[in-house]
Write a structure and sequence with these properties.
- The chain is an alpha+beta fold.
- The protein has two domains: 219 residues, P-loop containing nucleotide triphosphate hydrolases (Rossmann fold); 95 residues, Nucleic acid-binding proteins (OB fold (Dihydrolipoamide Acetyltransferase, E2P)).
- The protein has twelve helices and 18 strands.
- The strands form four sheets. Strands 6-7-8-3-9-10 form a six-stranded mixed beta sheet, sandwiched between helices. The protein has a five-stranded antiparallel beta sheet with strand order 13-17-14-15-16, covered by helices on one side.
- Helix 3 packs across helix 4, helix 3 runs parallel beside helix 5 and helix 4 crosses helix 5.
């Protein structure tokens, strides 16, 4: 079994008397992408700063190829792309070449590599454009070209798609995925977006309040959350306590379900668990339907336009609730997120998300 390219061991970062980050072990394999997923304030950016040698941990160590690594070794092996591209004055070509100059690459190689990466990332026709005239997507492609041109062993990605519109974001993610696969470059991506993590990650780690809550191959993590907090981070809209899960699904433990796996039915049909409508929120081709069942808030979906019976209902009216068992995921432990399941605090949970 090969050694991890990058490894964090017993890393802790503390500030103002509290722990910001506590990670027992986290590793990035050679030629693989690890996506670290978590909400705002979970410690993702702190973790990336430690990996980039921009922040020294309070305790613990960062290893490269199985050996403790200092600032010089980490800086020599990594290159970073940030949320907002930090471009210098001058042309696109000048910006792409900048990183190689700092790394002492020979002049001829600088020209060859910059042309190759501008062409690969579709910005070769912008080579002579002033960097300050670029769109957000173009600027981020320049930032990626600059980072990749130095041939890093590990690419550090700090939510690089967050400011992009959906079409631009999708194209750039697809292009980056191809580049990483073709070059065999490892990557450490931090993001709050589960779709980005799913698109790029070979493995996914979930951070919550500075602690590593789940880590494993991407398909396994995405399909089976470890606890309630992980479930919400992964887009499971409902975390049902064992009492409600037993009534609806016959489950013995708490379960997580997406809204798409919860259906509402005309109460006249007598189908499902009795529930009461709270509100309907149109969201394009689907509507989010919030109901109360057995004292708990549950989110379901319905097609748009709404069925006539549902369109005629108002808050407090009765309906039936049915859950698809195949969409339910058993949770190992309740976790702190259960504190927000009661109806009185459900609205606060939605505002935070």
């Amino acid at each position: 079994m090969s050694l991890p390219l990058l490894e964090l061991r017993e890393v802790a970062v503390r500030a103002h008397g509290r722990a910001i980050l506590e990670v027992e072990r986290l590793a990035v394999a050679p030629a693989a992408t690890l996506a670290v997923l978590g909400p705002n304030g979970s410690g993702k950016s702190t973790l990336l700063r430690v990996a980039a040698a921009l922040l020294a941990p309070t305790s613990g160590e960062v290893r490269l190829d199985g050996r403790p690594a200092g600032r010089a070794q980490l800086r020599g092996a990594t290159s970073a792309v940030l949320q907002r591209p930090l471009l210098r004055r001058g042309s696109v070509r000048h910006n792409v070449e900048t990183g190689m100059r700092f790394h002492g690459v020979e002049r001829q190689a600088i020209g060859e590599r910059s042309e190759a990466w501008m062409r690969r990332l579709g910005i070769d026709e912008l080579a002579d454009r002033a960097a300050h005239t670029l769109s957000g997507g173009e600027a981020q492609r320049v930032s990626l070209a600059r980072a990749l041109a130095v041939r890093p062993r590990l690419l550090l990605l700090d939510e690089p798609f967050v400011a992009l519109d959906a079409p631009t974001r999708g194209e750039l993610i697809a292009d980056l995925r191809e580049v990483l696969a073709d070059t065999g470059t490892a990557a450490l991506l931090v993001t709050h977006d589960r779709d980005e993590a799913a698109a790029l990650g070979d493995a996914i780690a979930i951070l919550h309040r500075g602690r590593l809550r789940q880590h494993g191959p991407a398909p396994e993590v995405l399909d089976q959350p470890a606890d309630a907090d992980c479930a919400r981070t992964l887009g499971f809209d409902n975390v049902l306590p064992a009492s409600l899960a037993a009534a609806l699904l016959g489950a013995e433990r708490a379960v997580a379900l997406r809204a798409a796996d919860c259906e509402v039915h005309d109460p006249a049909g007598g189908v499902g668990l009795p529930a009461r409508l709270r509100r309907v929120i149109p969201l394009g081709a689907l509507a989010r339907v919030e109901v109360e069942a057995a004292g708990h808030a549950v989110q379901a979906t319905a097609p748009v336009p709404l069925p006539g019976w549902l369109a005629a209902l108002g808050p407090g009216d009765d309906l039936g609730l049915v859950l698809r068992p195949e969409g339910a995921r058993l949770l190992a432990a309740p976790g702190p997120a259960f504190d927000a399941l009661a109806l009185g605090s459900a609205a606060d949970g939605r505002r935070q998300s």
